Amino acid sequence: MDPFRQMSDWRKNMDHFFGDNFWNEFENIIKPTLPQINIYQYDHELICIASIPGLTDLNKLDIFADHASLELKGVIDIDYTGGNVVKEEILQGVFERSITLPYPVRRDKINATYQHGLVVIHLHRLISDENSRNKVSIQLKDDT
């Protein structure tokens, strides 16, 4: 008997008993997301701060903003050699993180800076002209 199949069956039973999202609550405890991000919301601006230590080449970080989502791709590499690792708490490696933003943002007004291990991304709210109305034309339909 395949032990991995038993584990899959066990998880399905747990999902059925506790609900489909039961394991999602533990995912960040078991495997924290990279990079860690804080988002601060203002009336017409979002400030996103991402912790990316040891970034020496800004070309190794890609930031994409699309309507109401923000995506970061890159590598956290402390690049420290020598000695034996006794304790390692700073997460390293390739990351890809996508965040849903609380409102749509302008594509033409985004900037990012990097200082002291933090990427600060300024995003500005997309404000649509809600007062504009589109007149719908009505066509007369023949009875034939």
Automatic annotation (TrEMBL):
Give the matching SUPFAM superfamilies.
Answer: HSP20-like chaperones (SSF49764)
Positions of the SHSP domain: 28-141
**One Pfam match:** HSP20
Q: Which domain of life is it from?
A: Bacteria
Stated family: Belongs to the small heat shock protein (HSP20) family.
Q: This chain belongs to which protein, by name? A: Hsp20/alpha crystallin family protein
